[in-house]
Amino acid sequence: MIQVNKQALQKEKVDPYFEKWDQISALIHEAHSNRSNNTKPLMEQGIALFEQCVIDCSDVEDSSMNEKEQYEVLPINGMERILFIKARPAQYACYRQLDELFKELKKRLARLRIK
Fold first, then answer.
1. Considering only CA atoms, which of 51, 44, 27 is closest in space to residue 89?
2. How far is 37 from 7, CA to CA, in rounded Å?
3. Which of 1, 9, 59, 106 has a C-alpha 20 to 30 A away from that of 37?
4. Maximum pairwise Cα distance, the chain
5. Helix axes 39-56, 92-114, angle to 10 degrees
């Protein structure tokens, strides 16, 4: 299991990821409401942002997530869920799943910060 990097868990370091997600999420929601073709590239931005947050909060040298590894910061079934999202990024269900992953990641990081 890839352990958490305690120095990277500071609120000031992780909050920008969630602020950026809020912006991207609003655009994705609007794109789905309008049945726009912009959904997939926006979702890919959101997926990349999620993965970067996980990598930056983990004690690892890699610049991308390894699907065979377990990350302490990932929520329950996080890797399976992110792989599901990557397989079908344009679907609304995947947007909802990514939104839930961000919410769960935020809670998990707060718990790990206290630990």
1. 44
2. 39
3. 106
4. 43
5. 20
For 32-45, the pLDDT digits (tens) are 999 988 999 999 99
Q: What share of the chain is helix, strand, coil (3-state, %, to 5)?
A: 70, 5, 30
Closest CA to 50 of 106, 114, 115, 102: 102
Residue 73, both tokens: 């910061």
